Protein 1
Amino acid sequence: MILNTRHFGKIEIDPEQILTFEEGLLGFESIRRYVLIPNPDKEVPFHWLQAVDDPDLAFVVTIPFLFKEDYEFDIPDKVIKQLEIEKQEDVVVYSIAVVPEDIRKMTINLQGPLIINGKNKKGKQIVLDDNTYSLKYRIFQETAQAEQE
Amino acid sequence: MLILTRKLNESVIIDDKIEITVISIDEGKVRLGISAPKEIAVHRKEVYLDIQAENKKAAESSMNIDVLQKLLKKK
C-alpha cells in the first residue's frame, strides 16, 4: 500500500504493520491509524509515527528507556484488556518527542507514553497521573551541562 | 451539568459504583476521595490537557533530524 506523506513523500507500507489507536492520541482523537517508520540509520533511536489518513501528521518517537533507564509504570488492567495484551514481551513503549529549533532542547514526554501491543498492533496513549515523570523530559541535559563546564 | 452541594465527609455516588467523598476543605482547596472500580480511569483534568498540548507541539516538531543524528553520534 502506498502512503502519501508530507515529510517523506510517497512511501510503501505493509498494511499489516498499521497500528490502530482506537481512541487516537490525546488532542488527535479522530486519527486512529499510524505506521511506524524506522530510522534508516540504525544508530539513531528516533523514529516516526506517521498518520495513515493524514499526510501532514507525523510524530518523532523514541524508546524512553534509552534516555531514562529506571523509567517504569504499571499498565492499567483496563488497558491490558483493551489492547488484548497477553504477554509482557509483546508490549512496546514509545515516547513522543518535541523537537524544537534548538535541537539540544529536545524533550520527550514521559507522562503520556504510547503503549503498543506488537502482536495485534493495537495501541493507546496512557496518562501517568502521579507526577513522577516529566511531560518535558530533557534528553540532552547531561550533554548540555558537559559543554558548559 | 448537575450541581450539588456537599459538606465535609459527605459524598456522592455515581452509577452505584463510584463514590466521591469530600475529605477536607481548606482555603480554596478541596480534597476528594474517589472509590471506583479498577476499570474506571480517574485523572486530573490538567494532566490530560497538558498531554494534549504537548502532542500538538510534537506534531509541529521539525522533522529534519539530521542535526539530531549528528548530535547523537558525537556522544
Protein 2
Amino acid sequence: MKHERLIVIGNGMAGVATIEEILKKPSPPTITVFGGEPHVNYNRILLSDVLACAKTTEEIFLNSREWYEKHAIQLHPGVFITGIDLDHKQVIAQSGERYEFDKLLIATGSVPLIPPMKGVDKKGVFTFRNIEDTESMIQWAARNDRAVVIGGGLLGLEAARGLTNRGMMVTVVHLMGHLMEKQLDATAGAILKTEVEKMGIEVRLNCTVKEILGKGKVEAVRFSTGDLIKTDLALITAGIRPNVKLAEEAGLAVKRGILVGYHMQSSHPEVFAVGECVEFRGWTYGLVAPIMEQAKVAAEAIAGSRSLVYGGSTPATTLKVAGIRLTSMGDFQQNGADCEEITYADPNMGIYKKVVLQGNRVAGAILLGETEDGPRLLEWIRKGTDVGPFRKSLLWDGNGAQPRPIPVAGMQDNETVCGCMSVTKGTIVEAIKTHKLTDREGIGEKTRACTSCKSCGPLIDQLLEDALGSTYVAAPKVNDLCACARMTRQALRQVIQERQLKSYSTVKESGCLGDCGVCKPGVSFLLSEIWPKDYADERQARFINDRVHANIQKDGTFSVVPRIYGGVTSPEQLRRIADVAEKYNVRMVKITGGQRIDLLGVKKEDLPKIWADLDIPSGHAYAKAVRTVKTCVGSDFCRFGVGDSTALGIEMEKRFEGLYTPHKVKMAVSGCPRNCAESYVKDIGVVAIEGGWEVYVGGAAGMNVRKGDLLCRVDIGQEVLDAATKFLQYYRENGEYMERTYDFVPRIGIETIRRVIFNKISGEPDRLLERFHEAKSAVVDPWKKESRRPVHKRQFSDLTIVE
Amino acid sequence: MEIPVEHKKMVLVRAGTVEDIPRGEGRCFTIQDRRIAIFHLEDGSFGAVDHDCPHRGGPLSDGIVGRDSVICPLHGWRIDLRTGVVIGQEGKSVKTYPVRIEQGEILLKVQG
Ligand code: SRM
Ligand SMILES: Cc1cc2nc3c(=O)[nH]c(=O)nc-3n(C[C@H](O)[C@H](O)[C@H](O)COP(=O)(O)OP(=O)(O)OC[C@H]3O[C@@H](n4cnc5c(N)ncnc54)[C@H](O)[C@@H]3O)c2cc1C
Ligand code: SF4
Ligand code: FES
C-alpha cells in the first residue's frame, strides 16, 4: 500500500507535537515539514530564559536533525509556504515549487500584534517571538542602556526582566489600569506591580504609545499624553494575532483563527489545523498546554480515527520571572449569580490568592506569591470537582497554618502534572520506569514535563521519590542569591562571565542586584572565585572581618589567630606570641578548639602592628575560608599510628591556606581510625588505615552533627591531597554562599561528586586542578601585605575625636 | 513652679575630610561622650547615625553599607540611614544627624 503523504506547514511547537503523536501510531504517513524559521524545532517558551541569561539558544532546541532523519521526516527549514491549492491538494513554496499532499496540517502559530503607532520601522524596535528576535535584541541590549517595553502582559514582563538582567534600565508601558489584566484582577495586578518595581523596573499604567521617535534609530517614545521618554530600545509586546493568511487565501473558513471542529479538522475534510492559529468554538489559545491536547486529537484524526474529541481547554498561565511566583487559571472574574470569591491577601508579603467558585465548583483562581496549590486547583477546574465538602481548606489546611502538600500519590494517572506541556502523571511514571530516569532533567527530555515554568518540579520530585524509593537523590534546590538579586548564583555567574564583570560595582551597575547590602560578601566571593587573578577587590563590598583581617567581637574589638600549621608550633613561635600578647595588652590568650592560639580583645588600630611583630601568616579565623587542619601526633610518636598524620596535615594546610570558600572549611588528619583529630566530623577529614588513607567530606560537629561521607580510599598521601583539592575546588565553584559542606554534600550527592571530580574521561578533574592552581597562585597573605601597605589610610582607624 | 526649658542649640562640627572615609564604608567619630557613625554612600552622599546598634551595641560604622542602609556587623540588624529606623523592627531606631560637605570637609550638625 502506498504511504499517505502528510504535509505540515509550521515547524513550531504545535506542528511538531502533532508529528510526535502521529509517530506513535501503527503506520504513520510520509511526513514533510515546512518551517519558516531556519532551525529545527525549539521550545519557544524558553526564549524568555534565553533573554534573561538563564539559558543559551542551544539549550532550547527540542528535536535534533537526527531525530527528523531517524523518522524519515523531510524537513525544509527556512522555507516559507506562500499558497495552498486545495483543488490540486498542493502547497506552494516561495520558490514556486509545488508539493502534493493527501492530508495537510496547518500549524502556523501567530504573529505579534502591532498597535497603531508611528515609527515602528526604526532600528531598535523589536518584537519577541522567535530566535532571531531574541538574538538581535540581546546584541542591541549589549550596546544600549534604556528600554521601553510596550505592553505589560506576560510576555512584556518576562522580556522586561530579561532586559534588566542584560543591564538595561527598563520601563514597561501598559495601556490598561493594571498589569496582566487578562490573567489578573486589579488587586493582584497592583501587588505584581510592586514586585516588578522592586526589581528596578519602572511601570506606567493607563498609558498609550503614540509614536516612536528618532533618526533612523529609536531615541524616544511619545505617549498619547504628549509626554516623551528617552530610550534606545522599544519592544512591542502588545499581544498576538493568529497567523491565518494562508488559510484565508486558500478559502478555508476563518474568523479570528482557522475554524476547527471537534477533531481539529478545518472546513476542508483533508485539512487539519492546530496551535495558536486555530479557533475552536470562539476560543483561541496562546499557550502550549492546550496545543498539546489539540495535538493528540489531531494525530488521531489524521490517522483516520475519530475516537478522540477536543472540547476546549482551561487556560492556566504562569509568569516565568525569577523571584515572582504567579499562576492564574480558568475564569477568575466570573460574576454570575451563584459566583463567590474566596480571597487571602497579604500585600506586604506579596501574597494574594483568590479562588472563584461557581456553585460548588472552582471556576478560576489567581495565586500570587505562593503557587503550590496551582496544580490541584487546575485539576478541580478541569474535572468540575465538587469542592463543597472541603471548602474551608481550599487555600489553607484546617489550622490555617501551612498550605497543604499536594498529594501526588492520590492523583489519577490521567491527571495533569505539568500544566504548561500538558503531561499526565501516568506518562511521567511510565517514562521513569521505561527509561530508568532519576532526575527532572531526564523526565524533561523524555516527556517535556517541567521544561518551562518549572512549577510542577516539586510534584515530579515526589513521583521520582515514589518510584525510586531510597535510591532517589533530591534535585539540588535552587535558591536566589539574595532578595534584592532575585537571581540564582548560577545565573549571576553566567552574567558575570559573559559580560566580564570584575567588581561588585560593575555587577551592581549591570542591574542584576538591588544593592541591599546583604549579598555584597557573597557576590565578592563569587567574583574572586571566577576571576582569581584580576578581580577588583572592593573593600566596601566585604564584611568588616575581611576589611581588617580579624574577627569582630561583641565589644567592637578584634581577635587575632595566627596560623599554626597542623597544630604544631615551636618554643620560638610561642615566645613571639607571648611577647605580642604582653606588648598589646591582649585581654585573653586562649587555646582554641582548632589547635591554635587566639589573642582576644585587640583594638582595631593595633592590628597591623601585631601582625608585623608576630610575623606569622594569617590563620583566616575571621573568614569564610580554609581554617585549620587539625592533626594528631600520628605514626611518629603514637603506638597505634599507621600514617604520618602530622606531616600530611601540615602539607594540606600549606596547600589550601588563604583560599576563600563559600563557607568556612575545616579539616583534620588522624593517624588511625581511633580518630583523635576528629576527622569524621570535618568538612574534609582524612584517616590513615593500614596501607593507605580514607578521605571523608561533608562532616560536621557544630550546629549540626554529621559524619562525613567517604569520598575515596587511596594508597598514598599525594593522592589524598589530589582528591581533597578536587573536592575543595568543586565546592568553591558549586557551593551556595554560606552553605557548609554538611549541606552541600547531601544536596549534590556523594555519587555525583565522585562522578564529576574523578571521571577522567570528561577532563573535568584536570580542569578543577588547573583552576585550583590558578586560584592558589593569586593568594597573598593579607597580614604581611597590609601591615606594610594598608589599602586606605584609615583602614584601621576612627575619625579624629573632637572634644 | 515650672522650670523653663532651654532650647538646645545646634552646632556644626568638623569630622575630617571626604577622603577620610572610603566610599561605601563608615567610620566612627566621637564628640564629647557621643559616638556617631558617618557613612560615605556609594552615590557620593554622606549620612550619619548614632554609632551603637540598638540591638546590643554593635559598632554600626563597621557594618556593610547598602544603597541607603547599614547592616550591623554583629547580628545583622539593618538600619535605614535616612530615617534611622531598624528595617523589620519598626519600633526601634537610632538618631540621625544632618551632614553637609563644604570644600571637601565633612560637617555634622549636632545639638551642642
Ligand atoms: C575560637 C573558637 C572557640 C575556642 O575558643 O576554641 C571559636 C570561636 C568562634 N566560633 Fe567556632 N570557634 C572555634 C572552633 C569551632 C569548632 C571546633 C573546630 O573547629 O574543631 C566548631 C565545630 C565544628 C564546625 O565548624 O562544624 C565551631 C563551630 C562554630 C559555628 C557553627 C558552624 C556550623 O555551621 O555548625 C559557628 C557559627 C558560624 O559559623 O556561623 C562558629 C563561630 C564562631 C565565632 C567566629 C563567632 C563569630 O562569628 O564571631 C567565634 C569567634 C570568637 C572570637 O571572637 O574570636 N563556630 N567552632 C574556635 C576557633 C578554632 C580555630 O582555631 O580557628
Ligand atoms: C517569549 C515567549 C514566551 C512564552 N511563554 C509561554 C509560557 O510560559 N507558557 C505557555 O504555555 N506558552 C508560552 N508562550 C507561547 C507559546 O510559545 C506558543 O503558544 C506556542 O509556541 C505556539 O505554538 P504554535 O506551533 O502554534 O506556533 P509557533 O511555535 O509559533 O510555530 C509556528 C511556526 O510556523 C512557522 N510558519 C508560520 N507561517 C509559515 C509558513 N507560511 N510557512 C512555513 N512556516 C510557517 C513559523 O515560522 C513558526 O516557526 C510563549 C511565547 C513566547 C514568544
Ligand atoms: S560556642 Fe563558639 S560561637 Fe558560641 S559563644 Fe563559644 S565561641 Fe562563640
Ligand atoms: S548588636 Fe547590632 S545586630 Fe546585634
